[in-house]
């Protein structure tokens, strides 16, 4: 920025800078009036926190202090991150109008969002979901669904791992371009082999109800139209996709009268929580889920404590005393 332009900018009232900045956002970037209003509120809040509108005086330390104050006042990490983004953009613009030692917002981060606990079904609800609509003479599609849902809950698979399973291991074929199996069922051994995140393969046991459901599905499974050895097929008789699995599970849960929205990851969370409740073996749950770090699995200890707390509230004679 040349000296003349800098002197002209500094000669204008300091409280005029936000108006000029917002005007440029509206005319040059053509942001919506709603977005402009949000940026205006952010700058008004910054001025209120600072107690003045002498913008070049604010330092990196000030912004960090304001961030901590917002957090202590109950504002969510998401809201604070949005405000910081607005302030950062304003100071990037202001640095082109006047000489600043640096952008005081640069490097300031919002507090970390608290890690939300996975939603898990109760044991009773999980059993009720698995046993729903199991009477009569099911069609092949229903047998496929039953086998998928039982396997998701039995072995804690990711939906992508489930969709990628083959009936048996098949070698790759360079002539046809067919890749080797990344996951397959070994019904005789009572387990599945899957390839999880980072290409890490693991072998997971399959429970007796899931093995029964899988055997029933394999007895009626038609040949795949794409010639693949895919374990689970869509209505078009090609390898099923994760989205189709999600849709079918959602519809099944609605028909079963589940009190919460059920998707494949809910069954994975339920598997982990229920195994941990019964065994207390966090390392085993880590291996079964295919987590590279025990930190990812430790969230289930909180779920386990929630279960124990609920039991305490129901059972202890003095739990409800006030």
Features:
disordered N terminus, 322 residues, mainly alpha
Counted by DSSP, the helix tally is 14
Derived from helix and strand composition plus strand pairing, the structural class reads: mainly alpha
Shape: elongated
What kind of oligomer do you see?
single chain
Strand order of the largest sheet: 1-2-3
Distance between the termini: 68 Å
Radius of gyration: 29 Å
Largest sheet: 3 strands, antiparallel
Characterization of the model:
This protein has 322 residues and is mainly α. A three-stranded antiparallel sheet has the order 1-2-3, with no helix packed on it. It starts with a helix and ends in a 7-residue tail after the last helix. The N terminus is likely disordered.
Question: How are the secondary structure elements laid out?
Answer:
Blueprint: H1 3-11, H2 17-27, H3 33-50, H4 60-72, H5 77-94, H6 123-131, H7 140-155, H8 159-163, E1 184-186, E2 191-195, E3 201-205, H9 208-220, H10 242-255, H11 264-279, H12 282-289, H13 294-297, H14 299-315
Antiparallel strand pairs: 1-2, 2-3
Helix pairs in contact: 2-3, 3-5, 7-9, 7-11, 11-12, 11-14
Summarize the structure.
The chain is mainly alpha-helical and 322 residues long. It has helices at 3-11, 17-27, 33-50, 60-72, 77-94, 123-131, 140-155, 159-163, 208-220, 242-255, 264-279, 282-289, 294-297, 299-315; strands at 184-186, 191-195, 201-205.
